[in-house]
Amino acid sequence: MTTEQSMTGRQRLMRQEIMKAALKLFEQNSVSSVTLSQVARELDLTKAALYHYFDTKEDLLRSIFAGWAASCREELEAILASPLEPEEMLRQILRTHVRQITSEFSLYVLSVRTEAELPEQVRREVRSLKRDTDMFIRDVIVRGQREGVFQPVDSRLAELAGIGMFNWMWRWYRPGRDDPEAIAELFIRIFIEGIRMRTHNGSEPDRTASQKLPAVAAEYHASEIRYHTDMLQRLVDATQTEPAQEKV
């Protein structure tokens, strides 16, 4: 097999065409049932010609799935390395995640539906990307909590709630019908508004550089207490002002 680094431009294009054809067959059948011979026939290639690009089916799967996972991870790591504030960093990560899902939607769906059919090494790469994405989002939430940007809720549960909205797209998203950018903006707004810190009157709290999570947590819980106390008082007032029943 010729290595990708030593290939000509034309050979690299053919390599991409082979991966596209294989992906199409995986969609139509299953990862486990498709053979290299079928992939070769799909492109009117001989099996010997196909071996020039991929020695084994596992090598082909690694190039498709592990290559995609590595590319996605690099994009997310670049955002984490940037000097963005927590809220904007979280927006960028989630926006990128949606683009990664929708731009390679068939591949993403297969990574969910047929993960168990992938070779162990390739499966580890795909699972590692999912774990890393979860961890990146959780780390940004925790940083935002420390800086007083996000509420001091359970960061793991918050991350699972947020990522669940996006990852479930494989069940309902339809390319050409649904607008990825509109989906991203709506979901991001729902998620971030849900965890953003607010004072009891609904405005953003006054944050200083010295403010730490315990102080933020105290403010949050105090605002919750004030809110529920106010609601209880309204119920009491409403009960007391009800007209008394006339005695018979």
List the SSEs and their pairings.
Blueprint: H1 9-28, H2 36-42, H3 47-51, H4 57-80, H5 86-103, H6 105-113, H7 120-146, H8 155-167, H9 169-172, H10 180-195, H11 213-240
Helix pairs in contact: 1-2, 4-5, 4-7, 5-6, 5-7, 5-10, 7-8, 8-10
Quick recap:
By secondary structure, the chain is mainly α.
Walk me through this protein's architecture.
The chain is mainly alpha-helical and 248 residues long. It folds into 3 domains: 1-55, Orthogonal Bundle (Arc Repressor Mutant, subunit A); 64-195, Orthogonal Bundle (Tetracycline Repressor, domain 2); 198-236. The termini are far apart. 69% of the residues lie in helices and 0% in strands. α4 packs antiparallel against α5 (86-103), α5 (86-103) runs antiparallel to α10 (180-195) and α7 packs across α8. It is built from 11 helices and no strands.
